[in-house]
Amino acid sequence: MTEDLTPAEAYAAALARNAERATALAPFREMYDFDLDPFQIEACRALEAGKGVLVAAPTGSGKTIVGEFAVHLALTQGRKCFYTTPIKALSNQKYADLVKRYGADKVGLLTGDNSVNGDAPIVVMTTEVLRNMLYAGSQALSGLGYVVMDEVHYLSDRFRGAVWEEVIIHLPESVTLVSLSATVSNAEEFGDWLDTVRGDTEVIVSESRPVPLWQHVLAGRRMYDLFEEETDHGGRGASRREVNPDLLRLARTENTRTYNPRDRRRGKMVREADRERERRQRSRIWTPGRPEVIDRLDAEGLLPAITFIFSRAGCEAAVQQCLHAGLRLNDDEARQRVREIVEQRTASIPGEDLHVLGYYEWLEALERGVAAHHAGMLPTFKEVVEELFVRGLVKAVFATETLALGINMPARSVVLEKLVKWNGEQHADITPGEYTQLTGRAGRRGIDVEGHAVVLWQRGLDPGHLAGLAGTRTYPLRSSFRPSYNMAVNLVDQFGRHRSRELLETSFAQFQADRSVVGISRQVQKNEEGLEGYREGMTCHLGDFEEYARLRRDLKDRETELAKQGAAQRRAQAAGSLEKLKPGDVIHVPTGKFAGLALVLDPGIPAGRTNGHRGFEHHDGPRPLVLTAERQVKRLASIDFPVPVEALERMRIPKSFNPRSPQSRRDLASALRSKAGHINPDRHRKNRSAAADDREIARLRAALRAHPCHGCDEREDHARWAERYHRLQRDTRQLERRIEGRTNTIARTFDRIVALLTELDYLRGDEVTDNGKRLARLYGELDLLASECLRDRVWEGLTPPELAACVSALVYESRQADDAVAPKLPTGDAKAALGEMVRIWGRLDALEEEFKINQAEGVGQREPDLGFAWAAYQWASDKSLDQVLREAEMPAGDFVRWCKQVIDVLGQIAAAAPKENSTVAKNARKAVDSLLRGVVAYSSVG
User: Fold this and answer.
1) How far apart are alpha carbons 717 and 720 in whole angstroms?
2) C or N terminus of the chain, fewer CB within 10 Å?
3) Phi, psi of 792 (to 5 degrees)
4) DSSP element (H, E) containing 563
5) In sequence order, what DSSP letters do the residues of 112-176 get, joined into one string?
6) How many CB atoms sit inside 10 A of residue 444's CB?
7) pTM of the complete model
């Protein structure tokens, strides 16, 4: 190519190459054995030019290269770089990667569990650690040049998302921010906000996957392509992808063949021969079992694979099913290598704990190349699974969706068993964003030519819906930012109330709210122009037609109100008359399908119990069971009685009467006709309309007749314009209320929090009291409750195990339903202290209600959960792992995670508690030592 260049072009190219060599990017690119993608180069150049960057790209596309370039720039310039991640496991993984590249002396790690070389020029940390450092004014921030926020789309998380915004808002202006995100549909909007709060920010969006992704549906023995022609392989190519017609035909066929036992043919149930034919026709389509799926993928060379099952128990069951099916994916050499690695990584776990943890069953599955991965597993076990999977020694992993949250564990294939998952409240369809995140694991860069996403056939699967999930590559980033008590005291301490309020107004949450207001404001302006036009249309030369139209509306509203009242009264009268009925009363059913003569068999009075007839439970007033003159036994409803009903006659119902017997019904109906067939029921006379005697209606009608516009020839034309004017005016007022509700929402919430904290003497104007300074050191969902417990000396005199039990109530949240059995609690002082904590929470809850602080909006204190108190107490009392797990009925991974969260809060309490005349700080540190043993103490960095 160079010989085709003119001398001037060759000279310009040489200058460009020399200029490239002079940049920091050139030596950085040489550190990799592959060339960087265009989006990576663009982002790195923007960083070197001194700009902040937002990089939005699919999972596995290599956006972390940009974060690593920020690390390279910091070291080149003699400055610091903090690399933040949303989860500890990802922090540990990134720490290991950077240590391998730059050496242990230059890289540190700060998470809730570990503190390694925190003064190093490169420090990997969880986002919460950086937030706490910013509020504390830590000396570690000195010389900070770059902050990388990996997985920044986490700010949508409703529990932890606010931390990301706090960090972005409060970082010093001199710090360059590198934001790495999954592909989101509003990256430009997020970039505009970053530009506003952080200065010049370049937005780089890449939607192309480095490894093409093929979408499939596995039904029975056949693997169907989801799309007929997938020329863009899951990216956004120019060609339009059509759903595979074979798959559409299969879905139609299966849905129409579904056997319904209520189907009748010639008055009889579908014959057994027909059902057998149905079964034979459907025998080629089924949902393959888990071992069958792995076998199929193995045969087609599509392993390693991650199968996402939205249940921990389901993941464990899948492993057992593979073992029982005799599945073996490793040869003898691989089995031996697995055993060596596992024994090396678990050498520090005592032998007596291995049996409790299910080690031997877990090892057997690993040796066969199969494993589960979920939050209930011991962290060490999860890390071993991740390492073996990356090394190719585990080829089939059954995982919950937590695996998709950033851990570097790509596969050749991803399998989704179902497109529905439990979201904590109900079973809901997974979103396009979740589908993209899950299937993003398929296709290993530099290893696989293509990745594969396989959805298992399920009855009722809609290929069109699946294509929509697969075709929607992005999802919007929505802020979950809300002020908290801890945030409020820290902000006021640093900036004062007024400046704090202004800072909160710069949040992404308020930015999005204000942007949505812009569109609504435009609509309000359009509506106001329309109102002006309608006002002209209803102008009357005789007088004020707007006033006349208002009188008409008032009259109509009053008539409607009286009509509703009348209908309600009639319903009440009818219900009252039904309640007076007794068995044996002969009545006349006024309307409905069963109108006419009827005998009351059962008055159907609701009594808070199930009536005997077909298990019917009454919720809507009396529903009498009657025998009609036409021999039908029916349960009537209030709709059949628009007017009151009276007994026309009385009849004795034979004790032998059986409503299911045609003969009994015929005999009793005949007796009914003989007894009362000649009686003509009194016609219900309509009461005089309430409107006829209503003074307000009389006044409005008189005012209408007296109004000048009443005599206008074009009165009805004006009235039509007036009605349009009224409807548009009503809609405009609703829009204005929406604008009012969205403007300054964050600041208004902050004001309410500040008012409550002032009431409790945490704040006095711009001054943070001693109580407030204590609250500033307490981070967590129940920060104010913890502070109040310290103020009221609730934990004084407790032993370390008792204190651990109490503190567990501040962090633990049960996975069980609210109506689960009451948890077991330690006795004595610990039980009394836990009871006092609940009472303090009740007082705070009432105070929050008074100050209109709403937990449903993510602000406020939830009730403390005592479900982990006994387990924390037992473990801190040096009980064995076997005993603690057995009594807690909790997986080891959950137990370790909750223990570490308790340890984290105990550390905060030790720092915040009074240093004089108090045992809490000393016992909190002792409680940390008591908890930090055995499986809880195993370091995840090694």
Assistant:
1) 5
2) N
3) -85, 5
4) helix 545-579
5) SS-EE-TTSSEEEEEHHHHHHHHHHT-GGGTTEEEEEETTGGGGG-TTTTHHHHHHHHHS-TTSE
6) 17
7) 0.70
Confidence of residue 23 (pLDDT cuts 50, 70, 90): confident
Cα(612)–Cα(383) distance, rounded to whole angstroms?
A: 59
CB contact at 8 A, 941 and 116? yes
C-alpha span between 568 and 514 (Å, rounded): 45
Query: Regarding beta strands 264-265 and 268-269, do their DSSP bridges make them parallel or antiparallel, or are they unpaired?
Result: antiparallel
Residue 770: CB atoms within 10 A of its CB come to: 11
- For 377, the token pair is 């597993």
- Count CA within 13 A, CB hemisphere, residue 45: 12
For residue 852 the two structure tokens come to: 């209109």
Question: Which of 165, 183, 151, 182 lies closest to 83 in space, CA to CA?
Answer: 151
Q: Where does residue 394 rank: exposed (0-12), middle (13-18), buried (19+ CB within 10 A)?
A: buried
Q: Where in 309-384 does DSSP place strands (E)? A: 370-373
3-class DSSP state of 83 = strand
- Return the residue matching tokens 């589960």: 372
Q: How far is CA 932 from CA 89, 724, 897, 902, 904, in A?
A: 18, 71, 12, 10, 11
Percent of the chain with pLDDT over 90: 30
Helix (H, G, I), strand (E, B) or coil at 465: helix
Q: Which residue has the tokens 């403390």?
A: 864
Angle formed at CA 452 by CA 450 and CA 458, multiple of 5 degrees? 165
Contacts of 469 (CB under 8 A, 6+ apart): 419, 430, 432, 435
Residue 616's pLDDT is: 40
Say yes or no to pLDDT of 1 above 80.
no
Query: Residue 787 phi/psi, 5° resolution?
Result: -65, -40
Task: Please report the beta strands in 206-267, taking only residues with DSSP state E, as ranges in sequence order.
Answer: 213-219, 222-225, 264-265
Contact 42/204 with Cβ under 8 angstroms? Answer: yes
SS3 category, 748: helix
C-alpha span between 193 and 155 (Å, rounded):
13
Q: At what angle do helices 892-912 and 800-811 cross, to 10 degrees?
A: 110
DSSP string, 400-453: -GGGGSS----BSEEEES-SEEE-SSSEEEPPHHHHHHHHTTBS-TTT-S-EEE
Q: Which residue has the tokens 């711009």?
A: 766
Q: What's the rounded Cα separation, in Å, for the pair 877 and 930?
A: 7
Q: How many helices (H) and strands (E) does the chain have?
A: 34, 26
Residues 766 and 558: beta-carbon distance below 8 Å = no
Q: Residue 182 — pLDDT band, cuts 50, 70, 90?
A: confident
In the block, which residue shows the tokens 């390693």? 304
Q: What's the order of all strands across the beta sheet hosting 52-56?
A: 115-116, 107-110, 122-126, 80-85, 144-149, 176-181, 52-56, 201-205
**8 A C-beta contact, residue 383 and residue 317:** no
Q: DSSP characters for 664-724? A: HHHHHHHHHHHHHTTPPPPPPPPPPPGGGG-HHHHHHHHHHHHSGGGG-TTHHHHHHHHHH
- Residue found by looking up tokens 């945030």 in the block: 487
**Spatial distance between the Cα atoms of 745 and 395, rounded to a whole number of angstroms:** 50
- Dump pLDDT digits (tens) for 825-865: 998 899 999 999 999 999 999 999 999 887 766 678 888 99
Element (H, E) at 564: helix 545-579
Q: Please check whether residue 709 is in contact with residue 540, taking contact to mean a CB–CB distance below 8 angstroms.
A: yes
**Residue labelled with tokens 């473990």:** 875
Exposed/middle/buried for 525, CB within 10 Å: 0-12, 13-18, 19+? exposed
Q: Return the DSSP state at 243.
A: B
pLDDT (average), residues 283-292: 79
CB atoms within 10 A of CB 702: 10
CA torsion sign, 595 to 601 to 606 to 609? negative
